[in-house]
From TrEMBL:
Reactions this protein catalyses: 4-imidazolone-5-propanoate = trans-urocanate + H2O
Cofactor note: Binds 1 NAD(+) per subunit.
Protein name: Urocanate hydratase
Signal peptide feature range: none
Coiled-coil segments on the chain, per record: none
Annotated ranges, domain Urocanase N-terminal: 8-132
GO molecular function: urocanate hydratase activity
Group of enzyme by EC: lyase
InterPro entries: Urocanase, Urocanase-like, Urocanase_C, Urocanase_central_sf, Urocanase_CS, Urocanase_N, Urocanase_Rossmann-like, Urocanase_sf
Names of required cofactors: NAD(+)
Length: 547
């Protein structure tokens, strides 16, 4: 395939037989745009080895199939490979995708790797294999939303004059300083690797770099006093920063961590080693390296527990740091909560989650038009207003211009219908495609993350994402996907994706109304069933239950 064929088409001219097929084609190619994907040459979009298509041959076949697909046909994708086109009808999804599914007894990383080596499977991650990844805006917004929820729960709805301490400024963790300053707080974050902080300075995700821990602490305290929203990255190990805070009797307002603790050998740095020394030891004596990592992680969690005792609002940010510490004997490691049960679940109970959309025209102005609509529709939502305004200033578009914001039950359908109207009235130059992450209210079963510590113990029940995919198919989403292993790895999660196109037609309006009502409703129903009061209230308010 030549470069021209693999570039995302822009503009109002069709390459396919309808806008829904065209949207699937553009979003597939957008996932693989070098400005969006981590390793487009290997078809890897993000998240380790999350791919958009199984191999180059499969990609070419998908492109060809989408170009020829009729308005009453559905293309079937099995782990990144097109396998058939079957007759359906105009309101059915144009594409149905199943990625990385294994019978539970065989659902191990090892078995998956064997199948992948034989060319029989592909790891779809979440939005990689379901063709709706939009670059780093997603993680910035998710982190912003977590801190906004924390600010609402513990403070006055923002982080003004609050000191927020964390560590790990990598691919995902690098979003923390920007998310914190967007919530008006001060961020003090440690990372061992200087280049990581430099990279965040270049993209303006962080404001300052420091090399001396005490000077960094002093500056952060000064900014806190002056209520300035500034972020500082300090080049040191997380445990060195936390130890200085403890020794100087300084208690941060909030405390978390996003070092790659899930991987003690490749991801986490033990204390007392420079980056070069660490690389050397990792190479020469991986057992010793891993042992030292575990020792540091145990100390790290003990320091967090100490600061929690002194009053810091402390939470785990999905990196399994608590789990590692527990493995080496820190019995009370789970005394501080994970971010989902602490902050995200109450949002899920209102059907809230990461709603996102992209302008198929490729014109950023189309997104600014949709931003206006969002601000007009939800004027009372201060945090949403702050996010949209800051995102316009600070987030660079990657590939097709896109936007993300968290909307709940009732809100998503309103937004979808308003976008469809924009298309119908010609206020945007081409249709808008609407989707979401699989990390959402009703679309995922993942006991170590999204469904950790459910009230009724139903963490591992995976009927919910399957019902979600089925109801979105019945409702007429444009493409629907069901994946396994996203976020936390093979064997650990089942989750569903959904994308729907607003092409300005009456038919699209009917589909949008159904799908954007039913999709978050699955989350409200799931959480009400598990016994959450907020979800029960939302269920009653929107009449989603049986009575
Ligand atoms: P990454 O590997 O790109 O970055 C990790 C960073 O941590 C690196 O910059 C590294 O230098 C730094 N680091 C490692 N050990 C350190 C130490 N002891 N002290 C200071 N710095 C240290 O990883 P990432 O993509 O940013 O993800 C980070 C972790 O957060 C992962 O474990 C990931 O699974 C988790 N995460 C979870 C969620 C979620 O649950 N929603 C979201 C984002 C990230």
């Amino acid at each position: 395939m030549n470069l021209k064929e693999s570039q995302t088409p822009h503009g109002a001219a069709l390459n396919c037989k309808g806008w829904v097929q065209e949207a699937a084609l553009r979003m597939l190619l957008n996932n693989l745009d070098p400005a969006v994907a981590e390793r487009p040459e290997d078809l890897i979009v993000y998240g380790g080895r999350g791919k958009a298509a199984r191999n180059k041959e499969a990609l070419e076949l998908i492109i060809k199939a989408l170009k020829n697909l009729e308005d009453d046909e559905t293309l079937l994708i099995q782990s990144g490979k097109p396998v058939g086109i079957l007759p359906t009808h105009k309101d059915a999804p144009r594409v149905l995708i199943s990625n990385s599914q294994l019978v539970p007894k065989w659902a191990t990383q090892q078995h998956f790797d064997e199948l992948e080596d034989k060319g029989l499977m592909m790891y779809g991650q979440m939005t990689a294999g379901s063709w709706i990844y939009i670059g780093s805006q997603g993680i910035v917004q998710g982190t912003y939303e977590t801190y906004a929820a924390l600010a609402k729960k513990h403070f006055d709805g923002n982080l003004k004059g609050k000191l927020n301490v964390t560590a790990g400024l990598g691919g995902m963790g690098g979003a923390q300083p920007l998310a914190i300053t967007m919530n008006e707080g001060v961020c003090l974050a440690a990372d061992v690797e200087e280049w990581r902080i430099q990279k965040r300075l270049e993209t303006r995700y962080i404001d300052e770099i420091a090399y001396n821990i005490d000077e960094a602490i002093d500056k952060a305290l000064q900014y806190k006093k002056e209520e300035k929203a500034i972020s500082i990255g300090v080049v040191c190990n997380a445990v060195e920063l936390l130890q200085r805070l403890i020794d100087r009797n300084i208690t941060p307002d909030t405390l978390t961590d996003q070092t790659s603790a899930h991987d003690p050998l490749i991801g986490y740095f033990p204390e007392g080693l420079t980056v070069a020394e660490a690389a050397d030891l990792r190479d020469k004596n991986p057992e010793e390296y891993t042992k030292r990592s575990y020792t540091t992680m145990a100390k790290h969690v003990e320091q967090m527990l100490e600061l929690q005792k002194r009053g810091a609002i402390t939470f785990d940010y999905g990196n399994n740091l608590r789990g590692r510490a527990l493995e080496v004997g820190v019995k009370n490691a789970f005394d501080f909560p994970g971010f989902v049960p602490a902050y995200v679940r109450p949002l899920f109970c209102e059907g809230k989650g990461p709603f996102r959309w992209a302008a198929l025209s490729g014109d950023p102005q189309d997104i600014y038009e949709t931003d206006k609509v969002i601000l007009e529709l939800f004027p009372e939502n201060e945090s949403l207003k702050r996010w949209i305004t800051m995102a316009q200033e600070r987030i660079a578009f990657q590939g097709l211009p896109a936007r993300i914001c968290w909307l709940g039950q009732g809100e998503r359908e309103k937004a979808g219908l308003a976008f469809n109207k924009l298309v119908a009235e010609g206020k945007v130059k081409a249709p808008i495609v609407i989707g979401r992450d699989h990390l959402d209210t009703g679309s995922v079963a993942s006991p170590n993350r999204e469904t950790e510590a459910m009230l009724d113990g139903s963490d591992a029940v995976a009927d919910w994402p399957i019902l979600n995919a089925l109801v979105n198919t019945a409702g007429g989403a444009s493409w629907v996907s069901l994946h396994h292993g996203g976020g936390v790895g093979i064997g650990y999660s089942i989750h569903a994706g959904m994308v729907i196109v607003a092409d300005g037609t009456e038919d699209a309006a009917k589909r949008l109304k159904r799908v954007l009502h039913n999709d978050p409703a699955m989350g409200v129903i799931r959480h009400a069933d598990a016994g959450y009061d907020i979800a029960k209230d939302t269920l009653r308010k929107h009449r989603l239950g049986l009575d």
